[in-house]
Predict the 3D structure of the following.
Amino acid sequence: MGVISYGDLVLIVYEKRKWLIKVESGKKFQTHLSIIDLDRVVGLPYGSKVNFGVDYLFLKPTLEDIIMKYKRLTQIIYPKDAGYILVKLNITPGMEVLEMGTGSGALTSYIANSLRPTGKVITYDINEKFTTIAKENVKRALLESWIEFRNFDGNLPKAEFDSAFIDLSDPWLYVEKIWSSLKPSSPVGFLLPTVDQLEKLDKSLKETGFWIDETVEIFLRRMVVAEGRTRPSGLMVGHTAYLTFARKSEHKNTNIDTVMNNTHVT
Amino acid sequence: MGVISYGDLVLIVYEKRKWLIKVESGKKFQTHLSIIDLDRVVGLPYGSKVNFGVDYLFLKPTLEDIIMKYKRLTQIIYPKDAGYILVKLNITPGMEVLEMGTGSGALTSYIANSLRPTGKVITYDINEKFTTIAKENVKRALLESWIEFRNFDGNLPKAEFDSAFIDLSDPWLYVEKIWSSLKPSSPVGFLLPTVDQLEKLDKSLKETGFWIDETVEIFLRRMVVAEGRTRPSGLMVGHTAYLTFARKSEHKNTNIDTVMNNTHVT
Amino acid sequence: MGVISYGDLVLIVYEKRKWLIKVESGKKFQTHLSIIDLDRVVGLPYGSKVNFGVDYLFLKPTLEDIIMKYKRLTQIIYPKDAGYILVKLNITPGMEVLEMGTGSGALTSYIANSLRPTGKVITYDINEKFTTIAKENVKRALLESWIEFRNFDGNLPKAEFDSAFIDLSDPWLYVEKIWSSLKPSSPVGFLLPTVDQLEKLDKSLKETGFWIDETVEIFLRRMVVAEGRTRPSGLMVGHTAYLTFARKSEHKNTNIDTVMNNTHVT
Amino acid sequence: MGVISYGDLVLIVYEKRKWLIKVESGKKFQTHLSIIDLDRVVGLPYGSKVNFGVDYLFLKPTLEDIIMKYKRLTQIIYPKDAGYILVKLNITPGMEVLEMGTGSGALTSYIANSLRPTGKVITYDINEKFTTIAKENVKRALLESWIEFRNFDGNLPKAEFDSAFIDLSDPWLYVEKIWSSLKPSSPVGFLLPTVDQLEKLDKSLKETGFWIDETVEIFLRRMVVAEGRTRPSGLMVGHTAYLTFARKSEHKNTNIDTVMNNTHVT
């Protein structure tokens, strides 16, 4: 442990460039600067600097490093948003978490990593292309044991989940089902790029019986730090998406057959 | 489980107001609107709405809910920053994490929650007042089993930690010790309010042998969502702190007796 | 000139506190700290520091200083937005500018100041209370000669204005009239707090024959500058309003009796 | 007036692309889409749409349109910053304004436009290359009558200016001279990209006798407006520069031979 071995993923760093490479016997990796002979780094501790024409750094990749190199068909979730989601959804080891909209499996992976060793993410997508790529991705991150991929056929289990995250373009269509699938009081989050979606979701959450916590937008700006010349970075991402968070409360329609209605006193 | 019981913390919500209350026999809690008889909610499922003059919602608090009500002598870390730190520090169940600057124990708690059931946060502070309050706080969040409080006497263990977070006003004084206390390639984060601190830290990280990943600032803006009238909130927090992230690499001074130097090939 | 005289407005400054006071014979002004005898500062150059228990600074107010102290019934425009509007509307001495929505006369004043000595702002409001207050305000700023206040009766003059700014809650109702009142190619700006308004305006601008330049949001964050401790301010305004800018192009309905249609070749 | 004529600058627009072209007899202009025969648009009103394969819009350029197409050797000032500077410097027709750091003449032009017909910008640069280009630029904007270009030889006139803007990398070296060149109480602004510069400037302003109003940073984010799909733009500029504003007060060194010292009562 702590030593680069065959089969490992290694993050090779040169200045601001990063490459995520699987170490295999006899493998050579070519950057724009030189050729790296991977056999030569096996046995070295992670964090070592090795010269192949220029000095490369060989780091043990974090989950973020691996996710940022995921194969993707769509925009993946940014760390600035993923971190906030983990906090707001109260992700804790042992939880069962619902995800609708697997995408490339980026958020799936962040959540899976945070609920092991006994929890599970149940993630749904209707697009099998996404599921195929996401499965490959999470395997690379060694997280497949805590993720169950399902094809969405219109049904969700009842009162099973401790938390949920929904990354769909029309989540208001599923708010009833999501409500039913959550354990009482559980948090749920939604990712939505446009304002119109926020309004539609807000309306359906209120009608169904969710307590709406907040809708936020998160910005991240990098600083260029240099002695006597520190300043903010000239470029930044202007917008990824809005995030809405809510919690399951009582259903508005009190005649509905809910998981709560037997225990409710008047 | 899922039912409000004596001894539980419950989050009582009325519109945008929230109160975190421990449910105890015979206890009555007075808001600005009415008196809540806590005995009457025992046995109800979390998420229930109960009328005590007005309708109150009784939610199961998330870790964030509990932390936001921590006793504090200083500013506690915001969720926008805490979430990003969890991602960047690669916090994973089972890890041993170093924290310098316990403060009120807010970040300590977020980290502890994310590394259970087998990991541990070792948190140092030189101010015993902080430690006393932090201990009380984390007990409230039921996280004391994964946190070890230590008084900082100038020493840190060697090569023990998988990750570290440093919230001190002069972290550059400790960069050598932090370097030694981390396992090779481990990530470390720093919270710093001013630009001058960023520059001093940057210099000491470079001199010691850290790879500097990034320095960022995170903004969060709430949206006021209402059908046909959605707009951003008129107020926002302008600045909490800058966050610098780095990873342990080889020590610059190759004569130093490091945990790496025996295994390094040339 | 350059010397404090009876009848002048003077900006009195103590640390971060500012008061805008008219200098009158025998007048005394009381701050939370002491009493200022205004007779004693008459004849001093602007910029003087005079001790009345504590040192006060006596500045010649800028237009912004005066506007920020305007009487107001609603939120006045912020300098961050006003400055951008001046640039985008191409405000130049000599122009005739239309304003719909006088409000407290803040933007009216910024524009009037920038088009003198020969230009004019024609400003409309339907609420006479606003007009009364705005008239008082602009008189204080000595700008009344370049402003004409009108009550809006549903009509605007034809092809008269070089530029226009519209601060109404339902500007899409007036887009036809605004189009007709502008000289060909003239810029127009709109201030709108909500996203729904942006969409409605956008639609009506496109239908009428405006070229839409951009919709923007402007943020301003103050820095706390102090040797070795510089950092961004902890508080900032999250949102004032969105600004949409467009230019008069050809009318979509080519049968309309426009100011252009005689000269247009095919 | 209002009709496209030979010798005019015209802004040709196709969707989000813009070209600034001088209309000359026989001139043809080629875009990536087609060839525009400029003779054919002469005599048309500004704002006309003319088909040359695709529909182009022919707008009368605003000052901003012209400035954004200035030749430049360095980054020019952005409209978001320029507008705020106009407000903070109290630029008013008739003023005499000092500029140090002509650059490409962008801010020079915004200021010149706002102080005509009787005012003047006196702008200094030490680099003659900049001055040459700036002269060409302001001629294009027809603003040369209100701008005087000077080579900076270390001297500034005394007590002459109503306002000043300084865009130099080491403005603290000139704060004494700037102080002397301003009329009492006049505002001055500084553009500085880094935090270290802010601190050095702040110190020298305090030592010399300026009242420091504020240091700010301005952000602009565009909105993508579309019915039912409105959202913020995915990209934004992260940082252009900080702006510091101050006003001339009494000199700290009361023995100095200042423009104030004869009139000051004690």
